[in-house]
Structure formats: C-alpha cells, structure tokens
Amino acid sequence: MLRPWARASLFTIFALAALHPDARGAGFALFEQGAPAMGRAGAYVAGASNPSAVFFNPAALAGVKGTRVGLTPSLIFFNESFAGSDPYPGYGTTGETAHRGFPLPAAYLSHEFSDRVTGGLGFTAPYGLETDWRDSPNFPGRFLSQRARIERLEVSGALGVELSPALRVGGALNMGISRVILQKALAAQLPGEPTAVEIGTASLESPRQSGLSGTLALQALPSDKVKFGLVVRTGSTSEFTAPAHLAYGPIHTGNANEDSLIQSQLPRDQDASVRVRFPLMVMTGIEYAFSPAFHGEVDLNWTRWSVFDTVSILFSKDPAFNIYTPQDFKNALAVRAGVEYAPPGRWTIRGGAYYDVTPQPATTLSPLLADTDRVGLTAGLGYDAGPFRLDTYALLVLFRNRSTDGTSVLHLDGSYKPRAFTVGLGLGFAL
Fold it and tell me: Nearest 5°: CA angle at 261, between 257 and 263?
C-alpha cells in the first residue's frame, strides 16, 4: 500500500492533466483567423466578404464569387509574470514565463458552384496556447506547472446558400484535432523533512485526438446599408488518454534502507484519461455602411463556458485515484467593434477594439491557468493588386492584472500579469 505522501504525490501529478485543456476561455479561444477580419478586431460576423467566412460566418460565403484562396497566418507573442502574496508563497516571490512567439495557421478556399451557392474549406487553429515557466527554476509554482501546451487544429467544410437577395444561410462541419503537452515538478513529504521537497518531474504528451463540431449561420441584408449576421458554433468533446512519465532524482533521508523503500513506493507511469469539453459559442453582429467606402460593425460573442464546471480524471490502473475537481466557470461575453475605409483606389484601412470578459474565477488562478479580462486594440491595412490582395494587421492586448486575493484553492496566492502582441499577414488571390 502506498504511504500517504506517495498517494498525495500521485494526486498532484495527474491533477495537472485536468486543469489545462479548455479552461482559459477568453485567453484560450483564438479569433486570429483572418487578417481582414482582425484588422477590425474580429468584428466580421455580419460583414464577412472573403473565404475566411468559413470561420466567421459560412452563410456569407454565398456572396463570395468565383474561386478564391486565402492564406492568412498570424504570430502571437505572449509572456506572463507572477508576483507572490501571503499566505503562500509570500511577497517578494516572483516568476516569469519564457518570451515566445506562437505561429497560428489559417488558410481558406472558396468556390462558387452557382449564382446562389458557394462552398468553402478552412484550416484554422481556434484554440491554442503555451506557457513555459522553466526559466524560473526556483519558482514555487513549478509544482503546479512548468510547461503547458495545448494545440487544436480544425479542418472545416462549409456551404453558403442565398435564399433571396436579402437572406443567406449556411453551415459548416468542423473536424478538430487536439493535443496536450504538460510538465511539472514533483514534491513529496519525506520522513524527517519538515516540509515537502522536490523529488522529480512529471510530463504528459497525449496523442492527437479528434472531435466533431458544427456551425449554423445566417446573414440578412435588409437594405443596401445594413447587414446582420448570426452564427452558432456547437461544442465538441475530445477524450485524451496518455501516460504520465515520472522521473525521480535520488532520495536522501540518511537511511539507505528507507531510501530504497521510498523509491519502491513512489508512483510509476500510469495512463490517465481526461475528457475535454469545448463550449458552444454564439456570435452575432450588425454592419452599417455609412457610405459606399466606410463601413462599421459591432459584434457580441457569447461562450457557454459554464459546461466547464467539473473536471474528471479517470485512471486505468488505480480507479481509487480518480479525481473530480470543481471549476465553477461562468459563461463569458466579448464585445467587438471595427471600421473599414476603402476609398477609390487600391488601399483599405481598418481599425477596431474589443473587450473580452474572463470566465475564470480568482480562486482557480495558477501558473497553469491565469486568465483575465482584456481589451484588444487593432489596426490593419489592405492593398488590392488586381488578382492578388495583400492584408496585414497588428493587435495589442491590454490585460487587467489579476490576483487570487488570498483565495487560491491551489494554495499559491499572488497576482498575474500577462502580455501579448499579435501580427498577421493575409494573401488572397482568385483562381
């Protein structure tokens, strides 16, 4: 039978796998799926007018003529710092993630089958992030997370149909392919030690898992000046099963027999399954043409993060270690507003802003997950070169610093300060 400190070590190892996959709501869902759209802060549900409508509003594909291709990658720069507070780890304790750039792919193809029907294919990454605290080797939060990476790619097939000059409908089927990579330091309470000591590391890398979701969409054009869009993206579920690899250093208690006994009772590699529920999202927007050259749009995005209320981890060998952890996430709302000015000639100028509300309570903030409300400011520029079109954008994200206020359920209190900046490029052309 495992000693109490050994059972506790096994719990902390596998608790890591439960907390990361889709918990970060606002900061984990990625809207950077098209340079023209992001130039106006993602306010594109009503006014989508290029192949990226596969993601933003499949109904709007019905207005995209001919055969068109869009390649629009982005690069996200992200960094986060931590400042501890009482009761643990105390004031003066700090940590910082590595400064990294994360490439974000996006590519689209649309084809007009008839005057009223256009189909499209999309390759996007609507969820994904990485945090890496390994450059802070003495950071107390390393026992919760040293590195966490989530990847989710989607391949989408979409169709837009014009029912009348004033109404278009559409939909998409999305195949999501996800992967989880996790690493943390391990600690255990050893005999004769007044506090827990570091004894090794645990890592988990899951194989890629797939899951299906769907999109239903509508675009209404009640007048020459007004467009209305409504999109519902259903949730999906992915089940990850992967071994956690445990690597231990030497155990030194001063008693060789005790050291050997402890080593023999430490948890070993064991498969764990984690069910990840990606939430339902509803997006709606209104675009208004102030003039033929100047358009503005306001969108509301609602995400049903309340489905992430409890995390369950099921073990293949030791069901006694199954973990059910309440999360109590709330549904989240984002507001986006953008403008676009395309005077006669080849240039288009865009700008926008958004406000995104976090679904995460302060009690669950940690080095693994530390989401916060944020404001995004964007600017974009487009150039029409005949058969080719070049678009670019930049996004500055202003985060609200957030503290656990002494309420951390993971017993690591402090404040988190994220920083992010994104640039993107789009190349579109007709075939």
Answer: 115
What average pLDDT does this structure show over 357-380?
89
Domains of the chain: 4-417 (2.40.160.60)
Structure tokens at 427: 């190349």
Any idea which residue has 């995005």 for tokens? 301
C-alpha dihedral, 364 to 368 to 372 to 376, nearest 10°: -160
Distance CA 358, CA 397 (A): 14
Q: Which residue has the tokens 């080593």?
A: 263
At 328 the three-state DSSP class reads coil
Q: How far apart are CA 218 and CA 286, in angstroms?
A: 12
DSSP 343: -
Encode pLDDT of 46-78 as tens digits.
999 999 999 999 999 999 999 999 999 999 998
Assign 4 a pLDDT band (cuts: 50, 70, 90): very low
Which pLDDT tens digit goes with each residue over 19-31?
Answer: 333 333 354 778 8
3-class SS at 255? coil
User: 126-135, 261-270, 388-397: which range is least confident on average?
Assistant: 261-270
How far apart, in whole angstroms, are the C-alpha atoms of residue 252 and residue 201?
Answer: 17
Q: Among 207, 282, 219, which residue's Cα sits nearest to residue 57?
A: 219
Tokens 């391990």 correspond to 186
d(CA 237, CA 210): 9
DSSP code at position 39: H
